[in-house]
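Two quick folds needed for the group meeting slides. Do the first one here.
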Amino acid sequence: MTPTEQQMAAATALGSPAKAWLRALDLTAPIAANPRRILSTVIDEMAERQGNAPALLSRRECLTYRELAARSNQYTRWALAQGLGKGDAVCLLMENRPEYMAIWLGISRAGCAVALLNTNVTGDSLSHCIDIVAPKYLIASASLVEKLIFGRELSCLPKVWVHGAGYHLYDRIDIDVERYSGQALRVCETVPVTTGDRALYLYTSGTTGLPKAANISHARLMQWSLWFAGMMNTGPADRLYNSLPMYHSVGGVLATGSVLASGGSIVIRDRFSASRFWSEIVEFECTLFQYIGELCRYLLHTPAHPAESLHRIRICCGNGLRPDIWEAFKSRFGIPRILEFYAATEGNVSMFNVEGKPGAIGRVPPWLAHRFGAALVRVDVEKEAPARNADGFCIPSDTDETGEALGRIREDTSNPGNRFEGYKSDSDSRAKVLRNVFEPGDAWFRTGDLMRKDAQGYFYFIDRLGDTFRWKGENVATSEVAEAICAFPGVREAIVYGVAVPACDGRAGMAVVSGIGELMLAQLRAHLRRSLPGYAQPLFLRLRHDMAVTETFKYTKGALVREGYDPAAIGDALYFDDRERGAFVPLDAGLYERIQTGQLRL
């Protein structure tokens, strides 16, 4: 028996947690040996095997496996007829719906990379996201196409296709695609797309700046889909409820691929609704659901619902379920199993809390340590970078000591999870790679996330490093928010950061602004609502005459973060964005108390 076989035998003897790892390993092992088998061909296989079984369900439309395969084939033929192929990009701006997945499955099969645009992004940020991938075509739903009018002029000039009625300036792709057959693609009309080719661009803010377009290969899609299928042990009898945005890796790939790869069904909701969550879970007979931390907190804060104890959920999977609500969430709703995980869309660090330890984001079993090259290193807080010893190498964090998570980059064709596929921009890619970490010449991916690891090997998420904070399940780049504020007439300077708020996951946005008077706050608020998605609009404002800087002319952001938004400790004028009243209101002691005690939902 080889050492690997011994490890596998030992893992089998450990019980169900180890079996989840083994299922994931078994399902993903053939990926490297079958380069022509991509997610689209997996759907074809399911269409042959169980064609009339439901694949994607929603209030708007439903697609069986046969219909999903046929619809995606129509989009493949449409893309090929347009002359699109390898190296070309197509942007997709559309709400959650089954057609969304059929579009990118089909177009990516033609060799293109489909850029999944965030439907919340607007103005200059949206223009930036389009420009950086330089698409030849842009597909937008009729309800969202007007977003393209606002913002700066595009550097590229993609042909725009609209999906749906109600907008007459552009050709309708939903009509044009009907000209093409949905029959199985013949060998002579397909291009040789392999797992090594790029399938998607997914946008991430990383740790600084405007959104970046992360390269996502077909191998990565297969790895995500099959790995999570193994971890959750999905099968044809499963139905997964997905109310997360499909432009994200979690809602658009992990949730969908993990169930479709095993013949189950996905129930797609256009957006999350706490009041309708459990009734729809029961109505659609769901056995799984995907979450982010804030989703769980919202559900826990809703009044009791008759359906919350009538469901058939066997497991929920996601990230960001905080330790302060873990047990309460599991107990109130009778969730048999929670699979918390950590992964970066563009990175190579992933962890899975298979054992269900409250608050942990994952643990790497010792017998799999050779496959998961993750490490925590000490951080130089002032430099916002890993600290180095006298020899120039990084310093590993001690047990329970906070450090930045790094992932070892290996050129291992048998394990796509170890790769760092980078971004559309080479300079962005280079900035995420740290070299000479523990030995000369080694290369590691910087996650920008601070974690700690306990004596049992469990990892716990602490915070984001640098200028990005997380709010409402989204990463917010402070530089992007500050740029939007400074674009308002009269503003001289703006410092943006995240502040901790009791009973809320992540950090709420706060901005210190100089050069604007109180009488302009209504106009500033309207400007920010036009310029930024809701989760990026700062909840707290602090008005100052000028900004304090260090001797090297850097803003003293650290001190501002520590001061927070307590009016008793701050002499500057403070304001809170009251979403119910639709205005910035003075933040006095009474309002501060309501926020601190959780009386005011943010």
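Then this one, please, same format:
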Amino acid sequence: MDTPTLDIQLKTLPNQPGVYQYYDKEGTIIYVGKAKNLKKRVSSYFTKTHDNGKTRVLVKKIANIKHIVVETETDALLLENNLIKKHKPRYNVLLKDDKSYPWICIKNERFPRVFSTRRVFKDGSEYFGPYTSGKTVHTLLDLIRGLYSLRTCNFNLSEEKVDAGKYKVCLEYHLGNCKGACEGLETEVEYNKNIKAIKEILKGNFKDSLSQFKAQMREYADNMEFELAQKIKEKVEVLENYQAKSTIVNPKISNVDVFSIMSDESYGYVNFLQLSYGSIIRSHTLEIKKKLDETDKELLELSITEIRQRFNSNSKEIYVPFKVDLGEDLKVTIPKLGDKKHILDLSLRNAKYFRMERFKQIKIVDPDRHANRIMAQMKVDLRLSEEPRHIECFDNSNIQGTHPVAACVVFKNGKPSKKDYRHFNIKTVEGPDDFASMEEVVYRRYKRLLEENQPLPQLIIIDGGKGQLSSALKSLEALGLRGTIAIIGIAKRLEELFYPDDPIPLYLDKKSETLKIIQQLRNEAHRFGIEHHRNKRSRTALNTELETITGVGEKTVVELLRHFKSAKRVANAKLDELEAVIGVSRAEKVYNYYHEK
């Protein structure tokens, strides 16, 4: 039988929860998705207009649709997750496997050994983990071995062999690290008590072990066995210290999984914290590459399923920042206040730090990807129609009205392109007129680029508010470039960005990378302009009365003259006005110099 057309396949899809698979004309699976209602979800791909280009390409490539009906949404999530990992479809987000994660094994044997492993066998042994780093495993094993005497040999300590005297104690016994179970010097009951306590510690419950050690310590002290009491005290301190490092929330919060997400244009970062008895016993952040402009909700739902599978979590409750659909078996809490909100915020902070670390690593090993991400983010933040791969920033350096100059600095792909920097001596403007100077410089810059057929920037930044921006716009209009190049003005407070014909400024997050690039541009323009200004002035021109003040250097003089425009205005300035520019200490020296005279 021939494969039915897509139209027929869509009409015959069931209104049931399930998983759908898209195939291309070669029969390769290119996308896997889950749905509460297969018919509605799959049909939406073919009836909606998609903003995302990759989604439009995906839809064009679909030649065949297969689906699997399941009982519940939870089943759909699990099946979707497993199919993505198995087939790795081109248009699905990337989820890495967990084969290399370490576990702690409590071996299924008489006098069980406790050790780390990266291989899990179904032999009745208990496995705790997986842990996200070997360091965590070693720390836990060191803690356990410091608290409890366990055997490290791999002998078969069956009752018959021990009774037959087959083994002899080793150096570990003489060092006090093992109690000699191989020679029958320790009972199975006593050894298993320790194993039970170790299991509780691995689950994050320190309470029972602490109570047991404290009772032992008091007993030794009452019997005047102070050396033994001191050894137990040291174990209590080790355990309490470890617990203090891991406890960050209300101990009543137990057996809960916490998930948070943050994302940018290309990637999502989902952090997972596992809580037990008020302690974090596991933290892991998953990086997900977006393929089809997936929403945070979609990424979080998929990641929760993947992470809970990966770490064998059986928690019945999860904390998340917003509503997610994960089936009825799981209690979903969206904390708003108190300890629960605190732990959710901590998870989000972990996701942010992970993202920052990845950016730093990518900047070193893959600078192109770093530049692409920054450019995509700037396009969104600054509401541009294209990525600002080429940015130019203008600044006037007009100190005391003498030698008026301007600077143009150029950034390409988010980095300074110093060979393209340009200085301008103001030619047509008399006196300190920032607006007219800006109009002249912008006109000269782009008239020349047009004449020489040089590439124009995608973004112009004007250091100044609405006045300087209007002046620059006049020049662009005169050259026929208005509307061709995006242009914005930066007010004195860096958070304010002005756009042409828009009286309301745009405010950027102070921590955003877009603002950092803009700050860097403006600082470079300041530096470059002042440097040129200094070169133009003779040493005598700098030798103003200001420079004769003890404790006031050239940099301070430049800052004062740049702000107040003349030495006379500096002399007449109030103390608080001076402090705002050069700080309390230097302001007092300048103020006292003029007012004591």
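Slide caption for protein two: The longest strand covers residues 279-289.
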